[in-house]
UniProtKB/TrEMBL annotation:
This is Probable electron transfer flavoprotein subunit beta. Heterodimer of an alpha and a beta subunit. GO terms for molecular function: electron transfer activity. Residues 32-227 form the Electron transfer flavoprotein alpha/beta-subunit N-terminal domain. Keywords: Electron transport, Mitochondrion, Transport. GO terms for biological process: amino acid catabolic process; fatty acid beta-oxidation using acyl-CoA dehydrogenase. PROSITE patterns: ETF_BETA. CDD domains: ETF_beta. Binds 1 AMP per subunit. The keyword Mitochondrion applies. The lineage of its organism: Eukaryota, Fungi, Dikarya, Basidiomycota, Agaricomycotina. SUPFAM superfamilies: Adenine nucleotide alpha hydrolases-like (SSF52402). Belongs to the ETF beta-subunit/FixA family. One of its GO terms (cellular component) is mitochondrial matrix.
């Protein structure tokens, strides 16, 4: 028996275009940020989010109505959306920004996502996104979005189970002492941790199919949000180079060197 339309879930997966994890990061000559003229790809934690959305559909089969990816960024960000579509997302939204515009801050992103969710016909039942982006490492967007929507949140997820009939999710979270299992009602915000899954590689047929999947273009003004940064970066510099260590022949020599350096025993 097919579930009724009212029980079908709509999943939204925000993804971010970031400097590829394998690139060696360098500060630009102006010291205003990092050099971005390098290879970019989808933020790895967001890849995990897309993969989890696709796996949920594989497990729940016809109980998932749609998986929609969304990104906020310059024209090149469409490549990130194409990757999400090739992995299994059905459609996408691109909130396009000028190439020269600074990256939006987490609060602005959360407000834009809230506006997108409120505009979705049929609503959104589940938002899955990476716990952090590897470029700024802030890890704030998911929590801010949950606060703006007044939705429950399950952060740092390492396991996700959905009961569509009950509109309920059971999530295991990564915490310092191990794992914490929580139960939340939908709609829900989930942020993904590394242990949740291993993202699949997009096959060539799926990459070709992704080119035909719809991508909706929006602007910040369409959503009624301001993506201008609130914070000002004064200067970005590389950390000081580490000085090499030295070897000592005995404990007495070590103690003498520590004393010379002004380090005394407690």
């Amino acid at each position: 028996m097919r579930p009724s339309a009212a029980r079908l879930l709509n999943i939204l997966v925000p993804v971010k275009r970031a400097v590829d994890y394998a690139v060696k990061i360098r500060v630009n000559p102006q010291q205003t940020g990092i050099d971005t003229n390098v290879k970019h790809s989808m933020n790895p934690f967001d890849e995990i989010a897309v993969e989890e959305a696709v796996r949920l559909r594989e497990r729940l089969k016809d109980q998932i109505k749609s998986i929609k990816a969304v990104t906020i960024g310059p024209p090149k960000s469409i490549d990130t959306l194409r990757t999400a579509l090739a992995m299994g997302a059905d459609s996408a939204i691109h909130v396009e920004m000028p190439e020269s515009a600074p990256a939006p801050e987490p609060l602005a992103v959360a407000k834009a996502l809230r506006a997108i969710i409120e505009k979705q016909e049929g609503g959104v039942d589940l938002v899955i996104l990476g716990k952090q982006a590897i470029d700024d490492d802030l890890g704030l967007t998911g929590q801010m979005l949950a606060g703006l929507l007044n939705w429950p949140q399950a952060t740092f997820a390492s396991k996700v189970d959905i009961d569509v009939a009950k509109k309920e999710a059971t999530v295991v979270r990564e915490i310092d002492g191990g794992g914490e299992e929580i139960r939340c009602h939908l709609p829900l915000i989930i942020t993904t941790d590394l242990r949740l899954n291993e993202p699949r590689y997009a096959s060539l047929p799926n990459i070709m199919k992704a080119k035909k999947k719809p991508i909706e273009k929006l602007s910040a003004s369409d959503l009624g949000v301001d993506l201008s940064p609130i914070l000002e970066t004064l200067k970005v510099s590389e950390p000081p180079k580490r000085v090499g260590g030295g070897k000592v022949e005995s404990v007495d020599e070590l103690i003498a060197k520590l004393k010379d350096a002004g380090i005394t025993a407690v």
